[in-house]
């Protein structure tokens, strides 16, 4: 079994080396970007929320005129809410 694992690892390495030599693969392969992520610290439920507005105006006719989705996530519990909005103003929801 150990010899089989070594053989498979060598075969995989040979294939990856061959793949890197192929021009179409090197032009279109996904680029891995590593960057430092900032830590987000939350001490409990409802301590910190993250929100974003999603524009779905291209399908507003099929969604009763709702053009935006307000997405909110509780950082600690990962619980999420989505509220449909007809416009970006604060009068659109209670």
Automatic annotation (TrEMBL):
<dbReference type="InterPro" id="IPR012337">
    <property type="entry name" value="RNaseH-like_sf"/>
</dbReference>
<protein>
    <recommendedName>
        <fullName>Integrase catalytic domain-containing protein</fullName>
    </recommendedName>
</protein>
<dbReference type="InterPro" id="IPR001584">
    <property type="entry name" value="Integrase_cat-core"/>
</dbReference>
<dbReference type="GO" id="GO:0015074">
    <property type="term" value="P:DNA integration"/>
</dbReference>
<dbReference type="InterPro" id="IPR036397">
    <property type="entry name" value="RNaseH_sf"/>
</dbReference>
<feature type="domain" description="Integrase catalytic">
    <location>
        <begin position="26"/>
        <end position="94"/>
    </location>
</feature>
<dbReference type="GO" id="GO:0003676">
    <property type="term" value="F:nucleic acid binding"/>
</dbReference>
């Amino acid at each position: 079994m150990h010899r089989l694992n070594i053989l498979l690892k060598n075969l995989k390495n040979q294939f990856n080396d061959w793949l890197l030599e192929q021009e179409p693969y090197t032009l279109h392969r996904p680029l891995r970007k590593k960057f430092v992520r900032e830590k987000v610290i939350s001490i409990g439920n409802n301590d910190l929320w993250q929100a974003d507005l999603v524009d779905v105006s291209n399908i507003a006719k099929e969604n009763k005129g709702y053009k935006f989705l307000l997405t909110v996530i509780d950082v600690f519990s990962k619980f999420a809410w989505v509220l449909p909005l007809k416009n970006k103003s604060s009068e659109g929801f209670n």
